[in-house]
Write a structure and sequence with these properties.
This protein has 184 residues and is mainly β. It is 3% helix and 46% strand. The strands form four sheets. It has a four-stranded antiparallel β-sheet, with no helix packed on it.
Length: 184
């Protein structure tokens, strides 16, 4: 085992390995820092920070909680912004409200916005699918594929089935629903 540290000995909060485009890259996110490890010609992992490529954005307690690949681009997501790596350049998005979670399911990229609605993200724009009130004012914390549909797991109100229309979540009753609502 070898320990590979980030600048300033920061803890890694997220990791993503791109097996398709750059099989030697290990993308990592941390506190106000993100980048990737890549093997050099001596097979050593060398860290390359991408933070210095971010222009016109002031980091303020940002932690990169999620890294994912969508349509050939790498997304680094914090709660106040997200950063997109395409080729060798970084584009910063600072949406309001911010993204609480990104979810990749098949060809879709969904986003739960902070204290807001559930959306479909096309790589640049968010399209509202339905409002929080349709989930009893709750956040989606996981999206799981189920054939042509998706199961939406919420924090407190159980599971919902989202059909192919992507518009009408329906409760998916389980034996644990009551316990989830009670926070047990």
């Amino acid at each position: 085992w070898n320990l590979h540290k980030l600048p300033n000995n920061l803890a890694v909060k997220s990791i993503f390995i791109d097996f398709n485009h750059y099989p030697n890259r290990i993308y990592v996110g941390s506190f106000e820092e993100f980048g990737y490890f890549e093997r050099d010609r001596y097979n050593r992992l060398i860290y390359h920070s991408l933070r210095n490529q971010v222009g016109n954005y002031q980091f303020h307690n940002d932690e990169i909680w999620k890294i994912c690949q969508y349509r050939g681009k790498i997304y680094f997501q914090s709660f106040s912004a997200f950063f997109v790596l395409e080729e060798n350049s970084i584009i910063t998005y600072n949406p309001y409200p911010g993204v609480l979670y990104f979810f990749l399911v098949g060809d879709y990229m969904f986003a739960q916005l902070i204290n807001n609605h559930f959306t479909l993200f096309d790589g640049e724009q968010f399209r509202e699918l339905f409002t929080r009130t349709q989930l009893n004012n709750d956040n989606v914390v996981a999206v799981l594929p189920l054939g042509e549909a998706q199961l939406l797991v919420t924090e407190k109100n159980g599971i919902f089935l989202l059909g192919g229309d992507l518009q009408s979540p329906q409760p998916w009753p389980t034996e644990t629903d009551k316990r989830m609502r009670e926070g047990v």
